[in-house]
Design brief:
The structure is a homohexamer. Helix content of chain A is about 80%, strand content about 0%. The longest helix of chain A has 18 residues, at about 5-20. By secondary structure, chain A is an all-alpha fold. The radius of gyration of chain A is 15 Å and the shape is globular. In chain A, helix 3 packs antiparallel against helix 4 and helix 4 (about 60-75) runs parallel beside helix 6. Chain A is built from 6 helices and no strands. The interface of A and D includes residues 80 and 84 of A.
């Protein structure tokens, strides 16, 4: 199982458990989170790149993986994704670099699979 | 070895090494950390839920595991722990979600083992 | 105008502007945020203390003020609020101390006004 | 002096002092920081919105002000800037809200002055 | 009252209130915090520069001021303090810059007063 | 393959990929990052200890490993590294402890291999 399948499988399995639980705040937040990236005044591609950069500066590997997958689907190019990475790295500093390494690895799996 | 045993074994092994070292600041802090969650004006259950929520918003998986174990021992119910999760998620935002997934997995191991 | 009035006035004024804007994600999140602290499996007092501790470790002065006000209303005592402070400080470290100073100042205004 | 003038005046004054100092790492980083937002595979408007969202989730009021100014210049509309705010708030959680309030205040000054 | 007097006055006043409170965890932590920077295997100057850099990457203005004062007393030179700043900025990224501006302002007050 | 070899191998492999990419901001930042720790007004040993402490309070395991390796090469002693750990832990709080455990494990591998 590659990085992409592993990430998606665990994510789906646990999200199902969480949505099955009777906690309205969590369920509504999950829905709201999905709605946030829908087409609006900004298109999906722009929103996903914003989500990706925020995930980098907050150093959340799973969030990075999620938005890398969505960015790839939305047609972000390799040159563009590296510019997003560069903004995240300049804003967040050298502590972002270990996450950048893992992001590049994941992006290449997306390219190879795509 | 399940998640709980793995976490506890590594934690005990390394804590021993750290306490064996002649660094007074670190040793006193470890003691103080333990005292913080003792019964006082607030009961242990409340303190552990506070510790759990703080660990979630700071996105520290090992801290979450530790306070999940202590919360379980202190009698926190599944409904209650999900309310703690919901507060952590609303305060800390969607970057808390990957930690929520792992927290739910760990909590279920505690229930199954309990 | 004291600290409490100043905080509440600015908060109300800006929240009104934000709610008047036609952005559904933001409006729903504001509602959800309010619902999070409603009585549930956990009572309001416990939830507010959790919100307060999380605000401390995340070092958000305005969030601390908000939850201090709500905690005071919910009947949290001075001894209890200092125990919440102690947990926040041990988890978040010495960088929490400047926020602790301002929290104590605000708490005393709440006591004097209450 | 309004918020915008106050921010720009202090920023310019201190940047001058910092650039006058003979520290190559700091000077090069300042240059690099400027280059990061230049037109490339991504246009300036997109880069500024990314910079703005990152500043929100990292809760840096001065960084928010800077990128609000640049976003306004780059032609970001009110509807668009609120969508950027919504992404920052969902990713970063309710602790972003106090910064959102100040961001809205600053944006309105930009509109009134523009 | 200049920046230095203002900072020290508020800090002393609130620390007194906090130490007067009967909360052992907080009091012990305050003592421990002081002990941490005492001469040991590392000298005070090195420890204060470490404390300063950590305060910068965590973006705590009051902590920065405190360690700037102690670093100045310990004989840190202007060239040295700017090297500490440069490390903090590279590690923490451009979000550190607003804190760098205020740090430079405070340092110059220390030099002028010294 | 031990922890040290594993860390270095992945780091080198991904850094090569990143440097091969035609993104000037990222490449310049990588160079700048290296220059930051060169001998200057402060010696390399001091700079590496500062880098290590900052990595701890920001809770970046890979950054900690990197600066542990460099600190070891620069002649930092076991007593000294534990003092750096103690400062990081007091500033950053108990959430630093899981990273401290992994730091001690890595340091012991450096000692055993050295």
């Amino acid at each position: 199982m590659n990085l992409i399948e592993e990430f998606n499988a665990y994510r789906s399995q646990m999200n199902e458990k969480i949505m099955a639980e009777d906690n309205k705040v969590i369920k509504r937040f999950f829905n709201l989170d999905t709605n946030t990236y829908a087409e609006g005044a900004l298109d999906i591609k722009t929103k996903e790149m914003i989500g990706l950069a925020c995930s980098m500066v907050l150093r959340c590997d799973d969030c990075i993986k999620y938005h890398l997958g969505k960015s790839f689907e939305a047609g972000v190019s390799r040159k563009e994704v590296f510019e997003v990475f560069s903004i995240g790295m300049i804003i967040g500093g050298s502590i972002v670099i270990p996450h950048l390494r893992r992001a590049v690895e994941y992006w290449e799996e997306l390219e190879n699979q795509g």
